[in-house]
Description:
Structural class: alpha/beta
CATH architecture of the domain at 585-747: Alpha-Beta Horseshoe
Strand content: 5-15%
CATH class of the domain at 585-747: Alpha Beta
Radius of gyration: 35 Å
Shape: elongated
Helix content: 40-55%
CATH topology of the domain at 585-747: Leucine-rich repeat, LRR (right-handed beta-alpha superhelix)
Amino acid sequence: MNIEVYWKRRSGKAGRRTFGQKPVKTSTWSPRDTRHWSHPLLARARTLLLVIDAFEELRVPAAALARDLGGDWGARRPAPVLLGGLLKRKLLPAATLLVTTRPEALGELRLVVEQPLLVEVEGLSEPERRAYLRRQLGGEAQARRAWQLMRSNAALLRLGSAPAVCWMLGACLRLPADEGDDPGRTCRTATSLLLRFLCSRFAPAPGSCPRPRPRAPLRALCLLAAEGVWAQTSLFEPRDLRRLGVREADLRPFVDRSLLLESGECAGCYRFLHLSLQHLLAAALYVLGGGEGGPGWGARGVRTLLSKEEGRRNPHLAHVGRFLFGLANEDRVRELGAAFGCPVSTELKHELLACTVRSPENGPFSSVTDTRETLCRLYESQDEPLVKEAVAQVTEVSLHLKDPTDLAHASFCLKHCERLKNVSPADAYRDFCVVFGGHETLTHLTLQGNDQDDMLPILCEILRHPKCNLQCLRLVSCSASAQQWAHLSSSLEINQSLTCLNLTANELTDESARLLCKTLRHPKCFLQRLSLENCHLTEACCKELSSALIVSQSLTHLCLAKNALGNGGVKLLCEGLSYPDCQLQTLVLWYCSIGSNGCHHLSTLLQQNSSLTHLDLGLNHIGITGLKFLCEALKKPMCNLKCLWLWGCAITPFSCEILASALGNNQSLVSLDLGQNSLGYSGVKMLCNTLKLQNSSLRTLRLRIDESDPRIQKLLKEVQESDPQLTIESDKQDPNNNRPSSHDFIF
Length: 747
């Protein structure tokens, strides 16, 4: 690690001085050593830029940096203490400080630097990468081929921001292809790319005699790489080589081939061409034959390397773990052995399965994070038999696909889940849908996201597949045309398995809803539960919906929440609901612009022995008159309503007398939601008096309760003592879920 000081001279030219060439652990400084810096320079401290490069290479704990300088500025201090003084702005506080580090060391840096301004350096932009490949490969056609390969592989695209990775990719594409050898296949993963590059550096030139294979030096290089991973460093000093028994002569073949670089900052120091190459070689130590008992085994074995506890302490281990799975591919490990003439083990895959998939305490799919990492590792292997064995017992997976890399991993692995029954990704894309076409055991699927225009057509293909066994489909916020919605409607007439369809938050509009209603009337449509919540519907589609309710013999649950249906729309729906053949049991009309007239139509319906048992009118301003109409229905013996949700319906204390009277005469209602209605003490008292005296069927009552009012608390206690089976809930019990349970009841 170097400390570089830049300043602006009066001439306008920049000056520079570098300190810290000695190992940080052994050197000592005194603040008086800054006498080498001219006094006028210190007087202009605001013009100084201090650059601390490669903070992650520090081999001292953060605690040493946090030590105080003390009061004696003339005393010599260890370099880490003085460096901590710079970082904490005790030394030269007026100067500008620039620290470079890898993300892995950011946590330690935050311990000593207060309120840093963080800037992420992303490397080469996409145009810069294309220009780099064009210069390296010497032609537009070759550069385009390399770019297409990088673009098709999300992992390579991410790594390709580093010039070294672009160079390795170009070098691999310049290699003479074997017969039938497709570069897109051989460079599909980071393991395959780096391994191909590594082996190619030692391949004999065409027509030349084979060169000696550096068998022993390869092991020395892998040992050095693994030691660096466990020590969390990528710079190796002479003392590191001596401790590991690695000679500089062992490293010379790799230096000559630009795999290992000599550091210009420190004599006798080395670093790998790219950190990913160090990670690969560290993983290779675990497959090299012979030498058992070295640092690649024992306390640093595969199980330790893959453990969550070690991974939290050392972020590098996750990358090495992925390369381990990459080297579990027998073709790759044999390629490594053949290139260097050394024995290799092909038993790694069994140990990997034992440490991850078969581990009783660390299941691979026990959380979203574990699932993501497991799929990443399995994809890196490109070994389908290994993947198939790893996911053989998986029946349920919850995914959050954050980027194309996650999508590629899921697409490759989950097609081998023969027992998969339930998958719920937070986002869904075309390739992910294709994976499940004809998957007989998949019964539940949630697709969410509005940035994939071609998602709906692919989904329709899945529904039309003769082996499709989907039962519940949730399609949220999907961008689709009217023609695509029509295609979905026709697919539902072909599919014989789907019973639950949730189209929440889709711009369906009235025209597309009419086509869906036509499907509901089809004799081969078996939908039982349908949600059209927030689908931009109006009164114009209610006539078609009403007609569908008359004809459909399967639909029992319908959610029309957050659509501006109005009183006219409710009137049309009630016409269909009043037919004796209508099977609908649950109707959700949450926030549908319904007033007292709409309640009048519903009241008339409920008095006619309707099949409706669950009704949600939440967030509709029904007022006193609307509640009066509903209470008239509750008093009638032919009213079959069991659950009534009136959350936020502008019900006042004056309405409670009417409601209390209705509850006293009703023997079917078991759940009543009056949340977010200001009933006051008088309103709650009227309800409680009725519930105490009458033999009510009510089992759940939800109220907006003023917990600071002791009178209300006393009333509620008396009611529950008189009827222990009654549960009284408060809105404040779950502030994150103000909406009643009708939505959960439907799905």
